[in-house]
Amino acid sequence: MERKNKGAIILLLLALFAVRWTDAAAQSGPNIIILYADDLGYGDVGCYGASAVKTPNVDRLAAKGVRFTDAHCTAATCTPSRVSLLTGIYAFRKKAAVLPGDAPLLIQPGTVTLPGMLQQAGYTTAVIGKWHLGLGNGVIDWNGHIAPGPNQLGFDYSFIIPATTDRVPTVFVENGSVPNLDPKDPIAVSYAGKIGNEPTGLSDPQLLKQRADTQHSNTIVNGISRIGFMTGGKQARWIDEDIPLVLNDKAKDFIIHHKNQPFFLYYPFPNIHVPRAPNKRFAGVTKLGPRGDVIAEMDWMVGEVTQLLDSLGIAENTLIIFSSDNGPVLNDGYEDLADKRNNGHQPARIFRGGKYSAFEAGTRMPTITYWPGTIKPGVSAALSSQVDLLASLAALTGQQLPAGAGQDSRNALDVWLGRSKQGRTYLLEESYTLSLRRHMWKYIAPQENPVPEWLKNKKIEPGLEQVPQLYDLKKDPGEKHNVADQHPEIVKALKAELEKIIL
Q1: What is the distance, to the nearest Å, from the Cα of residue 455 to the centroid of all Cα atoms in its chain?
Q2: Which H or E run includes 298?
Q3: pTM above 0.85, yes or no
Q4: Are 367 and 323 in contact (CB under 8 A)?
Q5: pLDDT tens, residue by residue, 334-359
Q6: 71-72 and 66-68: which strand pairing?
Q7: What CATH number is associated with residue 85?
Q8: Do residues 178 and 209 both lie within one domain?
């Protein structure tokens, strides 16, 4: 009997040791969360100089992490930036542009992606929020299983806004299916012309919460007219004001259910993209109108995630990367008083341009890395690009990228973790032309095509000229003085380097 008891005790101890070893092995790599704002400018949060809107949760990340002053998304528009972030490939190589709401999947299954690489490292992966990288292979049946999509690119779980909140269909897609869809009320979508008899912004403007330009004046959903036409799916349609609550619940559930194993959460917020429709708890909290209110709402979304990590005791094993997909824009299709109520707020601070622009405000993003106990608080002026996240996080998790994968991504892990301030020598910026940074020199390639009328209406300087532009950002961060004629040798060198990258 005594021998049996001793054997049972030994087996129990071995089992306990195995459980502890399994838990330790599962947590060998840090959790990784990318909090990705939309259209958030360099100067739109407190830690980058904003005073008209309070962002205590983002500011807390900056105070306890690394705040970057020269970090960039790869492009001045959303779809291209997201392509580069997830693949480590410049978007121009894929001819990526802002996609319509019914576009096919832009990234081909089989491409090495950030979530796919992390899956190989043992991570459970999720995307929750705005997608805007296309779905399916062409014509999408919104009433069946929608594939390929995020789940075919390395995400174990997906709960997405298919395109943007100003485009139809105004429904979520969860793991390839529209939740809460009534089969008796099927969804139909058209970007070619009107379908059905639902009111539009042009036919029934009295139904609108906020008026819009012609492009955004198609089918009305929740008092907001959109780009494109849709019918059906009424039970599945979102309420704009509740989107942040729905997404946060999904994000928190994912974190809670995977707290004991390494996870990767890509959380691309819809904030602060138009249409700006803050939840009632945030409506009116700033003097900037809806644009300021949805910045405050975005900050709350950040706080909900970070507070949960603290409460679960996993903050010290979680790397958070906070940034944005492109620069700011006030007027982007809807009359929400963003320009009239801006009250001296500087969304881009001292930088010129914004969303769509070749100037610095198009891609210079508020960027913060936060990892308590690992990252030392500080400020970094290292020239950095989101295209490097693939190679950097591969290095963090001990993964070797296959040959040819992430061809534009470089291992900058020490920079992201604040251990080095030696950033990129060259940095590409995409807009409606290509620009190249070398340290503080900025070259903007000439663009022969005229500035399109729709871009002129955005009241943003596009930075498009028919002659080369060269700026010394150390002396002239606002890019006011083109010195190309004074430094032809630098123009020649940067032009040659840009052509080498393009090949």
Answers
A1: 22
A2: helix 290-312
A3: yes
A4: yes
A5: 999 999 999 899 999 999 999 999 99
A6: unpaired
A7: 3.40.720.10
A8: no
